[in-house]
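lol ok so funny story. i was supposed to be doing the assay writeup but got distracted and ended up predicting the structure for this chain instead. priorities right. anyway since i did it might as well share w the group, maybe its usefull for someone
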Amino acid sequence: MPLSSTQPPTSTMELASPMQVLPSELLIEIFVFCTYNDAFFPLTLGSVCKLWRETVEFSPRIWQRISMADEGSIIRSRFLARTWASKSKPLPFDVDINAECADMILPLLAPLLPSISRWRHFTLTGEREEERTLLVSEEPATPCTDLVINFADYDSDDDETEGRATFTRQYPTSDRYTMTVWVHEIPASTILMPLDFTNLTIFECVFTGQHTHPLAVIDFLSVCPQLEAFYFWGWTHEDASLTTAPPTVHLPNLKTMTLKSTCMTRSLLTSIHAPSLTQLYLAHLNVDFQLPPYYSEDGDSEDEANDPSQSPSSDHATGMGLRTFLSRSRPALRVLEMDFSDMRTKDFRFVFSRLDVLEEFLIVASDMSDKVINLLKPYESCDSPVRVRLPNLKKLALYNCQRLSGDAIVEAVSARAEYTDANASSKLQTVSQVEVVDCEGFTSRHGQTLAKTLGNRLRLH
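and the output, tada:
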C-alpha cells in the first residue's frame, strides 16, 4: 500500500534515542557509575558516537579512577596512567594497582608520582595488599621526593606485611610523601622511566639474606638523575665485586652520600659521578675476609708504607673507590666521616692531597698509623716552601684509633695548628676544634701538652 502523500518520510519519523536526549549532567553521572565496575570503560564509551566521545573527552569526573596491573605491556600501562591523570585534571583521582609481583609496584606507579598531590584513594592488591586514603592538597602539585627500597622475603615475612604503608606523609600536616617499596629485586631501568626522587634509601636485609648486586644499584641510580641524597645500608655478603669496569652514572645534584655495612663500596664509588657532592659518610665497611678479585686500576699496587691492618682487603677496596671517585668527580667535599672504615696509607695520602675544601674529617675505630696522622703536618715541596694538606680543615675528630701514638697526634696537630694560626688566610684555615676520644695511645699527659697549643679548641671525652 503506497504511503499517503501527507505521511512524512521514515527518517524523520524516527525518534531520538533516550540516551541522546538526556541532559549532559545525567549522562555524566551514568558514565561515572559505569567506571566503578570497569576503570577502562571511558575508552569504550568514547567509541560509541560523537556525543558520547565529546562527553567523555571533556568530563574529568569520568577519568577519576585509574586502574593498572602488572600483566601485559608496561609501556601501555604507563600510557594509560598518563592519559587518566591528564584527563581527570584538575580533580583528584583514585589509584588501583594489582601487582602479583611486588617488584612491579614502583614501575606501575612511576607515571603518577608527579601528581600525588591529587591522589584521593590508593588500593594495592596482589602479592601485598593495602588500602589508604591520601591527603588531597590544594597547593601546587609537588612530586613524591623520597624513595625507600627495602628487600623483603615475602615467604617468611607474611606476618609483617599488614602494617606496611607504601606512602607516608613526611610530616603530619605536609602534602609531601615518602614512598616505600618492599622488593625481591631492584626494578631494572628498562621497565622504569626517569624518576624525580631527590632522596633515595636502599636497605638490604641481613635477617633473611636478601641482597642486591652493585650493577643493579648502579642501573637504578641511572633513572634517578635528580638525586640530592643517597643512603645505602647493606650487609657484608662476599659476592659484591666486579671483574670489569661498571658503567658510569651521572648524578649532577647529589650532595650527600652514605655507604654503610657493604662490600660494594668500590663498585659504587667507582661508578658514580657526583661533582656536587659535599658530604660523604662511610660506615662499617671494614671486613676481615678477602674480597673477590676486582679489575686492576692505577693504584692497585701494594702500599709502600707496609702498615698492617685488621681489614686489608676492604681498606684496599675503600681506598681505590675513593681514588676513582675523586679523580672523576672532583667534588668540593666539605665533610668526610669514616666510621669503622679504613684505607691504606697511600690512599689517605692521595685523598688528603685532593680535598682542598674539606672542613670536617672524622674517623672512628681506624687502623690508621702514625704515618697517616703525620700527613696533616705542614710539609715542604719542590714548588712551595711549605704546604698543608686539607688546607680548609676546621674540625678533626679521632675516635678509638688504637694504633695512633699520643706523641704522633700531639706532634702533628700542634705543628699544624701553630703554622695555620700564624698563616691563616682565605686559602688556609686554622683548626677550630680537635676531638681525641678513647685513643689508647693518647694519655692525659698528651692531652695537657696538646692543650697548650689548642686551648679550648681541644675536646677530650
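Residues 16-63 form one domain. Residues 1-5, 9-15 have pLDDT under 50 and may be disordered.
back to the writeup now i swear
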